[in-house]
Structures are given as structure tokens and as C-alpha cells.
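Practice record 12: protein with magnesium ion.
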Amino acid sequence: MAVEMFYDDDADLSVIQGRKVAVLGYGSQGHAHALSLRDSGVDVRVGLKADSKSRAKAEEQGLRVVTPFEACAEADVIMVLVPDPVQRAVYEEAIAPNLKDGDAIFFGHALNIHFELIKPPANIDVAMVAPKGPGHLVRRQFADGFGVPCLIAVAQDATGKAQDLALSYAKGIGGTRAGVIKTTFKDEVETDLFGEQVVLCGGVEELIKAGFETLTEAGYEPEIAYFECLHELKLIVDLIYEGGLTKMNWSVSETAEWGGYKSGPRIITPETKAEMKKILSEIQSGQFVREWIAEYDGGLVEYKKLYDATTNHPIEVVGKKLRGLMSWVDSEA
Ligand code: NAD
Ligand code: MG
Ligand code: MG
Ligand code: MG
Ligand code: MG
């Protein structure tokens, strides 16, 4: 089945302009959605806890900030952009008591609905508008007149108009400028978790560390190992982003290209791919999410250990020093 794609002409901005929207959370995605919807003429309020550090920032940027409970009481479209493990509690405390017939709950990621951590009543529209990019890029692209592609999906269509509402919302944050793809909650969450674990975050991080360790354990200077295994990665990824693997191989030397063809498959082996399939099945079965929620509820003990180990890794120590000497590299987290 061909994918269904939607652009600006397929979406009617007046649909979301006729609703009252609550954006819960003002982090990476929350600030981008709230500001861009506001700029698109939508009635937005931001829901944050009274002691939230993000409050001052949102107010400075001209947004009205109320508590999550108040935001949900006022709104008939609620976009949930607090961290995934926190969403259950926010749903119980602020969202559920304020749901009325025909209201809509929106998500930026399908995790809580697909794995049934949140179970909204049947008289509510449940949809997703998930930009395929970090929130700060979502906002910057919108402000520059462009957009980041989005996925939309409808999990529950109580009004029969949930998809039009989701498309209208996606237009309000610039998504239909770049293209909106229709998907399901299941496909979004399973592919998103797989991509970040296996390729984008987990896979790349271990590849970088193992390469750096191999060079430094062989006696090469950490500074050289840093440039070779981390810094240059951006230059390579830029080429891949612009023109695929073909452009990358065209731009690097023939020696690099030949060496890559020969050695790459010795690093990512059939065993690696078998492990990828295992990870995918743990995601699909819900095992990964069960373990992550248990870790979160247990106080993040192992998470903090892993965080410390990464943050104190020798490549991070030398990288911090070197980036400090490169004024053009923005090291702000
Ligand atoms: P974040 O960690 O950057 O920001 C979370 C915000 O929620 C903060 O403003 C925080 O103060 C607020 N918050 C935390 N607890 C709260 C509570 N109890 N009540 C009210 N507010 C609370 O989060 P994020 O990375 O923007 O992720 C939000 C959602 O968007 C998640 O579902 C995530 O999977 C999804 N998403 C994120 C990205 C991304 O670019 N980071 C991309 C696609 C989808
Ligand atoms: Mg984050
Ligand atoms: Mg993700
Ligand atoms: Mg080289
Ligand atoms: Mg070449």
C-alpha cells in the first residue's frame, strides 16, 4: 500500500483555529508547538506546574501559562508533550477529570497509547502529530518559513473528524510545508524506538566509543582518535543526508570507499543483524516499555549509572576540551 502524504493544500488551518488548544510541557517539542500554533493564529495556553522552570521562558515569549489542570479545563484539544514516563500521572491528575464529549487528546509519540499506559474514554478523539525532528529544529524551520515532516495517526475517532483536526494542527506547526505522512500508533512507536536504539542513539554511540577505545588502547593520541571517530562523523552524515550513501562514497577517496566496502560488513555482521531483530521483537512485544517504566518508577538507578559512565567516558573528557577550542561548534546542550 502506497503511503498517504499531505501538504499545505490538503489541510484547513481554520479547523484548529476554531479550537482551544492546551500544550502540556514546554521542553523540546512543547515550546515549538506552542509558539508556532500561536503564530498560526491558534488560541493556545501552556500547561506547566506552578514551580516549573520553563514558566518564565514561556511567559517571556508571550504565551499564557496556567497549570496543566487549568489548561485542560479550558481546552478542547490537549497536546501531551511532557516526558513519556510522566504522561500517565499527568493524564490521571489533569487530563481525565477535564475531558468532555468530543474533546481531543493529541500526542507527539505513540508510546503511552499504543502500550496502554493511558486508556482514554470512547467519546474522545485520540490522535498523534509527531514531527520527525528535534523540537528546536521544528521551531526554527517554522520561523524560517519551512517545516519538519510529521507523522499523523488516529487511534480513536469519536467525532469522525479526528484526521482533519490532526492535519490542521500539523499545518499550524509547519508540518504540511514539508509533508505529512499518515501512519498508525503501532508503526510510529515501534519504528521510532527501533531507530533510536539500534541506529541513531545506541548504535552510533557504541560505534563511536569502540572506535575511540581501539585507537587509544593502541597508543594513538586521544585528540586524534576524537577527530577520527566523532568529529568527522558530522561531515560524513551531512553528505549522507544530502545525497545518500552514493554521495558519501562519491565524495570520500576511493581508498576510503574500498576500505569501507570491505571492512564495514566485518563490524556490522549477521550476528549484529540477528540482535537487531531480537531488539525489534522486544519492542513489539512491549517488553522494552515494561522494563523502561519499571526502571523509571524504581527511581532510575541503572539509568543514572549508565548516564555517569557515558558522561565520564574518556572521549567526552577530550571532546569537551577540543570543542572549547572550536568557537564555531555550539556545545550548549
Ligand atoms: P522534554 O523533556 O524536552 O520536555 C518536557 C516538558 O514537560 C518540560 O517543559 C517539563 O518541565 C515538563 N514537565 C515535566 N513533568 C511535568 C508535569 N508533571 N506536568 C507538567 N509539565 C511537566 O520533552 P520532549 O523531548 O519535548 O518530549 C515530549 C514528547 O514529544 C514525548 O512524547 C516525546 O517522545 C515526543 N517527541 C520528542 C521529540 C524531541 O525532539 N525531543 C521528537 C519527537 C517526539
Ligand atoms: Mg528530551
Ligand atoms: Mg523517540
Ligand atoms: Mg580520514
Ligand atoms: Mg570517491
